[in-house]
Amino acid sequence: MAVLPIHVLGSPVLRQETIPVVTITPELVRLANDMFETMHAAEGVGLAAPQVGRTERMAVAQVEDEKWVLINPEIILREGELKWEEGCLSIPEVFGDVIRAAHVVVRATGTDGKEFEVEGRELFGVCLQHEIDHLHGKLFIDYLSFLKKRKAMAVWDEEKAKYPALLRILTPGVHNDGDISGRL
Ligand code: ZN
Question: pTM of the entire structure?
Answer without folding.
Answer: 0.94
